[in-house]
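We recall that each integer encodes one residue's backbone shape. We quote one record:
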Amino acid sequence: MSWTGKFLRVNLTEGTVKSEALNREWARLYLGQRGLASKYLAEEIDPRVDPLSPDNKIIFTTGPLTGTNASTAGRYSVVTKGPLTGCIACSNSGGMFGAELKNAGWDMIIFEGRAAKPVYFHVENDRAELRDAQPFWGKTVWETDAGLKAHHQDPMLRVATIGASGENGVLFACIVNDLHRAAGRSGVGAVMGSKNLKAVAVRGSKGVRVKDPVRFLKSVAEQKQVLADNAVTSQGLPTYGTQVLMNVINEVGALPTRNFQDVQFDGARRISAEAMREPRRSDGKANLVTNAACFGCTIACGRISQIDPGHYTIVNRPEYRHASGGLEYEAAWALGAATGVDDLEALTFANFLCNEHAIDPISFGATVAAAMELYELGAITSKETGGIILTFGSAEALTALAELTGKAQGFGRDIGLGSKRLCAKYGHPDLSMTVKGQEFPAYDPRGIQGMGLSYATSNRGACHLRGYTVASEIMGTPVKTDPLVTDGKAALVKAFQDATAAFDSAGICIFTSFAWTLENVAPQLDAACEGEWTADYLLEVGERIWNLERQFNLAAGMTAKDDTLPKRLLKEAAKTGPAKGLASGLATMLPEYYAQRGWSAAGVPTAETLKRLALA
């Protein structure tokens, strides 16, 4: 139960669609979503495959709780080999799409090969077919979403699509569903574009069955009350969204600023959650219109914003005056503090463009920040940028590049390479703030030491959502640890990574973990799914998933040398704030982490570890 027990296999080269039975043994070992799809990917492709070749596969996948009435049970993931990193990629999204796919009766869709011409995939319960996408090729996310709904005469159709960025190989192109929710990182949209797959459009009305409905409803109600009783999930996130962190992280001296040259941003207050709620100059209204929730969510952390009608970005562009997906913390940081821009309306406009054209705002903003430092060094000039004055703090440069990158035009094509390739191209590879080719999120490892280890060891490149030790080091959840010390951080990171893999694979949002532990997730899964599910077993499942991903990356050519941080973070101390004088202590933490994981000194899982986790 809870799994539908079947998935769709779509061969784009041959134009065929087949239903296949889900491997129940694998579901028991890997649960669903991130874990189960990663197992399928690892079994079906050569890890050394070119991510943009027809031999790569891309999997849209749900979890066993997706589509149920468990809180936040609207999640789905896209799993593939990522072109930005060359690592296994799993990009998670909310909104309504995942629940719709599950309610159509499918656990996953595996796309393989490459279509001869642009296509989209339409699913309506048991009916599934490839259709001509030529009329939508080159269109934006917003245009494609509206166009497909009109074509099928179904306003409730749920659409996940790419923009021109994915079609043209921007290496951090993402897949956007429900207009502003995104499978956002590692370039999954570029893989979709390489396959000439424009969109997946789903309508489902079957519902999701669970093993024990009475016990499930009781457990779900109990765990929703836990969320309601927690200050973060019942007050902080609904009121301020993830942007609640902007001023907090700045105050603790861990807000990366101007391409990680500094750890505090003097403009943080002007781009914060509080600023989003304040009346502005032009019309007296606030940037924030309302909060919003994904399918089944009782937290509702999403932001819906509207740009000041008098702002330079839209004064002559009425098409952007509607309300749409507003700034979340990571995007606000990348577009703002990382580039030195403190114009809230310009950041909102750039974020609208990232949603409209389907590009990851984290990698985009961080790459622009690297380009700005290259420009100030003279390695990039106005000749390369097409006349754009690319200095830190320039809102005009930021918004111009958001449009160019989204459309894969002009200097936007260089930005679309990501900062690793951009900095190498212009002769300063050390200026790329990346791990395994993926740009850092919004936490400086000098001010939050555990996050440095989490970034360095992340299986998909630098990522906060693979082991969010900020919860412990800054927020005191589940226990408070000192962010400035390295002691104990190896065990902390491992615990967060393993638990997060289980949360991701269940089909629920990681934000529930501000209130829930696996002790809260297990009874819901146990009532919903066949078999017995305990917190201890879920932790084992998470550890198994982490090691499976590690095995994939090692087979793809990664080594322990890739578990590192940029020289700036290892050698240059923080200049201000509580972390002043500190660099990252990664060298101290990494050997202990390998030992905690049961890996060799070279970062390779030992035979004993693989046997214990049923990976050998």
